[in-house]
Amino acid sequence: MTKNIMIVGVGGQGSLLASKLLGHLLLTEGYDVKVSEVHGMSQRGGSVVTYVRFGEKVYSPIIDKGQADFIVSFEKLEAARYIEYLKEGGRIVVNTQEIDPMPVIIGAATYPEDLIGKMKTLGIQVDAMDCLALAEEAGSSKAVNIVLLGRLSRYFDFPVEKWQQAIRDCVPSKFLDLNLEAFRLGRESE
Question: What is the CATH number of the domain that holds 22?
Answer without folding.
Answer: 3.40.920.10
